[in-house]
Amino acid sequence: MSKLGNLGARLYRGEVGYDFIGKRKIWYGISILITITALVGLAVRGLNMGIEFSGGAVLTTPKTSVSSSEAQHLAESASGGHQAMVQKLGGGALRIQISDLDTKQAVPVQEKLAEDLKVPVKEINTQLVGPSWGEEIANKAWLGLGIFMVLVVIYLAIAFEWRMALAALIALIHDLTITVGVYALVGFEVTPGTVIGLLTILGYSLYDTVVVFDSLKEASKDITKQTRFTYSEVANRSINGTLVRSINTTVVALLPVAGLLFVGGGVLGAGMLNDISLALFVGLAAGAYSSIFIATPLVADLKNTEPQMKALAKRVKAKRASAAAKEAEQPQDDDPEPADDPAAAGLVGPRSQPVARSRGRGRPSGKRR
């Protein structure tokens, strides 16, 4: 932990660093590849919409020895061919979801299932969800997501600038696309818990992005009045300065979510925990990635198109070329002054101290006569 803290301090002071901005095309390529994979999975497999969105019946049985696959076959047979999903609950109970099942069909299906599973009819809890209610919930979820996006863009444009707001919006869409694509590929059911998880990860993703943007805004203040660093270099220093903080917050947030996903969902078999935790786990990881590798490099690309930033880059390049030429002209035994470049700016080391001259050299110690 002490080594990680020392590394964070050195990154913050600019003594060490990684060129995130210079390698941005690699990160763009990785993101495009992952996004295309997610979109293909979404187009081919589609989302497994839960009963809350598609409508149908949810039947919860008491403890039974029937397996999940056998119960699914019995439910589809009892409902006349309607699609059924079965989840094993704690204590041997079953949660059976049958899509497109109305009120008139629910009672006969409940009685037939009780007979096949050999459990009392009154111990099977049946809940009906109408398709119109599910459609209304889905529309409200999309509306809430759209309002959230608009408010985020407006706030970031006011607090920072429109380029940062645009980059943050692209990063959010990137995170949502990857999360939804993973849901399609894995086949997890989309429930209201999934929507809650998606809205939650947007906040986490924005948190990391805003931290980097705030550091970049402070570091780039009056940037055109100096000739030491370009905007891309200042952006790169901002990422490195907040890198350890972003990693720490992401890891701390992922640990309990991983517990929900792998322990709560995998071991205990709790379906609702799977819905929320998968969205949180994938979204948090994608949000941490996009805030470092996507959002800030996009801001740098947008800023570098401005005439003043292009002029700044030319002045910085000319000054460094002049400093390099002067250094080359100096004799080898001279001690040249360090050039103004990002590498030299972060170097530290012991400074040579002048030799102290003693006025009483060769004179014995004692009082002067």
TrEMBL record:
Membrane topology: Multi-pass membrane protein
InterPro entries tied to this protein: SecD/SecF_arch_bac, SecD/SecF_bac, SecD/SecF_CS, SecD_SecF_C, SecD_SecF_C_bact, SecF_bac
Keywords: Cell membrane, Membrane, Protein transport, Translocation, Transmembrane, Transmembrane helix, Transport
Record gene name: secF
Pfam families xrefs: Sec_GG (PF07549), SecD_SecF_C (PF02355)
Family per record: Belongs to the SecD/SecF family. SecF subfamily.
SUPFAM superfamilies in the cross-refs: Multidrug efflux transporter AcrB transmembrane domain
Annotated function: Part of the Sec protein translocase complex. Interacts with the SecYEG preprotein conducting channel. SecDF uses the proton motive force (PMF) to complete protein translocation after the ATP-dependent function of SecA.
Chain intervals with Acidic residues compositional bias: 330-340
Keyword tRNA processing annotated: no
Chief site of localization: membrane
HAMAP family: SecF_B
Protein name per UniProt: Protein-export membrane protein SecF
Domain Protein export membrane protein SecD/SecF C-terminal: 111-304
Biased amino acid composition, Basic residues: 358-369
Coiled-coil segments on the chain, per record: none
Compartment(s) of residence: Cell membrane
Start and end residues of each stretch annotated as Disordered: 320-369
